[in-house]
Please model this.
Amino acid sequence: NAGVTQTPKFQVLKTGQSMTLQCAQDMNHEYMSWYRQDPGMGLRLIHYSVGAGITDQGEVPNGYNVSRSTTEDFPLRLLSAAPSQTSVYFCASSYNRLRDTGELFFGEGSRLTVL
Amino acid sequence: SQQGEEDPQALSIQEGENATMNCSYKTSINNLQWYRQNSGRGLVHLILIRSNEREKHSGRLRVTLDTSKKSSSLLITASRAADTASYFCATDGTGAGSYQLTFGKGTKLSVIP
Model:
């Protein structure tokens, strides 16, 4: 099993550009989520999904879109990148269904710089 | 907003010593988890303790939970240089918040050989 795979690992964007961070898991996990990690701020939840076709907002959803068309994939879209979105992004998944998020399995992160 | 807050922010100890990190949180929880993050890597789950448990062990790790004080502690015994990492507590909520796992800002542990 590959676990949680994130691509790309590094990306540099210009302000206003759009891009998609990819996340895939091969563990048949129902729950998937995106976090951003900034120095001194810890990890903050952007969006999450409790199953295919179901998504919801976390603590810092503005500027980001998600969709969940399959159990395996949970892409994060930046429609118009801003310097404030410079961060390290982590995708994480969990085997638990609707209640109790349980243990999260993390990807290795995607480092995004917006100039 | 952050649910969990770790204390201290940074901790430096000699190899072989014990390391204790604390976490405080604000609202009722179903469970509390601890994660480790090595520099430049993703987080790795260490241990989960449920709200009806008071203490849990896993190898050199000991976690306690005091729901009346809304606090938890992580003890790493006989530390090794390889334990150098950042440690985060994470809590879920009850009710509508139970789908969201909220992380603290972490404790940076340095174990000096």
Summary: The mean pLDDT of chain B is 92. Chain B touches chain A at residues 1-2, 30-31, 33, 35, 40-45, 48, 88, 90, 92, 98-106 (CB under 8 Å). Chain B has no helices and eleven strands. The domain at 5-112 of chain B is CATH 2.60.40.10 (Immunoglobulin-like).
